[in-house]
């Protein structure tokens, strides 16, 4: 839900229904902090910046229709309060992305990590490389359910964002104090680009990947391919204002030392543009570039390894913050994959207490989410719990959150959000034609340890 304010000092009465709000910036406050003084005759809102004023207004939205009198003092605990949205596996039209930005901003989240490319689709136009979108943005069909079932829908799928589309998304997010961090995965997860331009790969001349999972068809490290990557990232830097640029670096078969050299060259190029690398924790193998920020996803150990290496970290462990994982053991859950992850489990997540930890990020991978409506079902109310984790203090009360949650779900009802009911999935939520592959927590943790050991 909208994170509960850090300090609330109530006083008798409530604000008159038509009382005004006087808003002003107070440099003495933390940049994202705010203070609300609510009296019968009106509301005084002070924010450390425009962002602080914005978050104060979100709190006022939560308090409607009857705003109690008193003082609220509030500021976030973490700088990075993020969500990854995968638009590569299933393309999301611009209005859907804007709608999703509204919903995360309402919950005081401030980073949208936009996963723009993968083996199954390339979603960003790049000047001089037209086949990235005419070929790479389209696949002939999509898998239905988990890979082990080998089912396909037989329906072409695709789409891409023009430069104007992306600028619109970035500007829309900025007005809501959300930074859009783009990701172009490299050197792995590149089959869509290689399908468009086979000389970028190592002999593959086939189509965009239709199966989920990791493709063995990755970029070669020839000078021409590195020039391609630089041109793509130059365009990304021209469109996105984020200091951090996602380059993936995950799940790439091959020599970790060779990949480290590739990543170092890319990091040098981004540094010349005043940007820094944001990469998955696999880039730690062989040594991550200086200044790189690590997205630690393979359990808790990579965050600790990144800290030891002196890198800033965003925590996004899959067994605690991957919102494509199933929400219960109910057979009616849509395409149940991964370990069971309830909203209470998400509420119990706590990032390491260390100055190098920027914050945390919940990841929404969309292999099994073909629409925004499905994304909303998988995201909420788990994203409500996550918002409290990254905004408020480490000391949290699950019973208190549980008691407040129904009232917040009523707000989501008013916004038309297709959240998962607390009582469980509805009959129409199931995807019997797209069966899943549930996992136990113990099995998944064992897999993650093996992945780390093999790198």
TrEMBL record:
<dbReference type="InterPro" id="IPR029018">
    <property type="entry name" value="Hex-like_dom2"/>
</dbReference>
<dbReference type="InterPro" id="IPR025705">
    <property type="entry name" value="Beta_hexosaminidase_sua/sub"/>
</dbReference>
<feature type="domain" description="Glycoside hydrolase family 20 catalytic">
    <location>
        <begin position="78"/>
        <end position="253"/>
    </location>
</feature>
<dbReference type="InterPro" id="IPR015883">
    <property type="entry name" value="Glyco_hydro_20_cat"/>
</dbReference>
<dbReference type="Pfam" id="PF02838">
    <property type="entry name" value="Glyco_hydro_20b"/>
</dbReference>
<feature type="active site" description="Proton donor">
    <location>
        <position position="251"/>
    </location>
</feature>
<dbReference type="GO" id="GO:0016020">
    <property type="term" value="C:membrane"/>
</dbReference>
<keyword id="KW-0326">Glycosidase</keyword>
<dbReference type="GO" id="GO:0005975">
    <property type="term" value="P:carbohydrate metabolic process"/>
</dbReference>
<feature type="domain" description="Beta-hexosaminidase bacterial type N-terminal">
    <location>
        <begin position="19"/>
        <end position="75"/>
    </location>
</feature>
<feature type="domain" description="Glycoside hydrolase family 20 catalytic">
    <location>
        <begin position="259"/>
        <end position="392"/>
    </location>
</feature>
<dbReference type="InterPro" id="IPR015882">
    <property type="entry name" value="HEX_bac_N"/>
</dbReference>
<dbReference type="GO" id="GO:0004563">
    <property type="term" value="F:beta-N-acetylhexosaminidase activity"/>
</dbReference>
<protein>
    <recommendedName>
        <fullName>beta-N-acetylhexosaminidase</fullName>
        <ecNumber>3.2.1.52</ecNumber>
    </recommendedName>
</protein>
<dbReference type="InterPro" id="IPR017853">
    <property type="entry name" value="GH"/>
</dbReference>
<keyword id="KW-0378">Hydrolase</keyword>
<comment type="similarity">
    <text>Belongs to the glycosyl hydrolase 20 family.</text>
</comment>
<dbReference type="Pfam" id="PF00728">
    <property type="entry name" value="Glyco_hydro_20"/>
</dbReference>
<dbReference type="GO" id="GO:0030203">
    <property type="term" value="P:glycosaminoglycan metabolic process"/>
</dbReference>
């Amino acid at each position: 839900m909208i994170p509960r304010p850090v300090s609330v000092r109530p006083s008798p009465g409530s604000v008159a229904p038509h009382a005004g709000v006087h808003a002003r910036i107070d440099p003495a406050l933390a940049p994202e902090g705010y203070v609300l003084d609510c009296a019968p005759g009106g509301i005084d809102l002070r924010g450390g910046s425009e962002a602080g004023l914005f978050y104060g207004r979100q709190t006022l939205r939560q308090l409607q229709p009857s705003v109690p009198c008193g003082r609220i003092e509030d500021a976030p605990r973490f700088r990075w309060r993020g969500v990854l949205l995968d638009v590569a596996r299933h393309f999301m039209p611009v209005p859907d992305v804007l709608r999703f930005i509204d919903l995360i901003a309402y919950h005081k989240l401030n980073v949208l990590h936009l996963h723009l490319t993968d083996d199954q689709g390339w979603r960003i136009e790049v000047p001089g490389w037209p086949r990235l979108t005419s070929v790479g943005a389209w696949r002939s069909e999509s898998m239905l359910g988990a890979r082990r079932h080998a089912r396909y829908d037989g329906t072409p799928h695709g789409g891409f964002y023009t430069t104007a589309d992306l600028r619109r998304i970035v500007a829309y997010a900025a007005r809501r104090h959300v930074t859009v961090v783009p990701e172009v995965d490299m050197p792995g997860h590149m089959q869509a680009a290689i399908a468009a331009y086979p000389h970028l790969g190592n002999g593959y001349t086939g189509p965009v990947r239709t199966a989920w999972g990791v493709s063995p068809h990755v970029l070669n490290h020839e000078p021409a391919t590195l020039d391609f990557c630089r041109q793509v990232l130059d365009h990304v830097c021209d469109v996105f204002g984020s200091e951090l640029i996602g380059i993936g670096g995950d799940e790439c078969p091959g020599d970790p030392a060779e990949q480290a050299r590739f990543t170092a060259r890319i990091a040098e190029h981004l540094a010349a543009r005043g940007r820094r690398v944001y990469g998955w924790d696999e880039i730690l193998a062989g040594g991550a570039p200086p200044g790189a920020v690590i997205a630690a996803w393979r359990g808790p150990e990579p965050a600790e390894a990144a800290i030891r290496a002196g890198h800033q970290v965003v925590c996004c462990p899959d067994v605690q913050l991957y919102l494509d994982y199933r929400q219960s053991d109910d057979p009616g859950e849509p395409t149940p994959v991964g370990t069971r992850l309830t909203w209470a489990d998400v509420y119990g997540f706590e990032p390491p207490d260390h100055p190098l930890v920027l914050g945390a990020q919940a990841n929404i991978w969309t292999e099994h989410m073909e629409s925004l409506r499905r994304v909303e079902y998988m995201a909420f109310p788990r994203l409500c719990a996550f918002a409290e984790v990254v905004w408020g203090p480490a000391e949290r009360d699950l019973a208190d959150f549980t008691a407040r949650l129904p009232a917040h779900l009523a707000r989501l009802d008013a916004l038309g959000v297709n959240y998962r009911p607390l009582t469980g999935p509805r009959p129409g939520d199931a995807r019997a034609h797209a069966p899943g592959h549930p996992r136990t927590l113990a099995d998944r943790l064992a897999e993650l340890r093996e992945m780390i050991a093999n790198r």
